[in-house]
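Hey, can you fold this one?
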Amino acid sequence: QVQLVESGGGLVQSGGSLRLSCVASGIDFSQNYMAWYRQRPGKPRDAIAGMSKDDKLTDYAGSVKGRFTVSRDNAKSTLYLQMTNLKPDDTAVYYCNRAPPFDLWGQGTQVTVSS
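Sure. Predicted structure:
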């Protein structure tokens, strides 16, 4: 069974940094394009960063490009998101999943950025 467990969120001041992690099980992690998604209050869940299975290709939403960096460790079945220069508009629940996503999602990790 697919399981996605996100961690690393928290409360941070504007301009601060956080590093999120996502451990995947029940899937062949190394064979999947993986992505980070977020759901801001009152808005749909959107993909914000993705990485190819061989970590050679990345893609970012315009709103996070230059501030967020996605990486992965296939040996650990773990996806990471380094977030810098955080803004209040980055406040959201962050999820990882493959792209396109499985129907099943993890619990996500809450990131709150105070101004």
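The chain has no helices and ten strands. Let me know if you want another pass with a different chain boundary.
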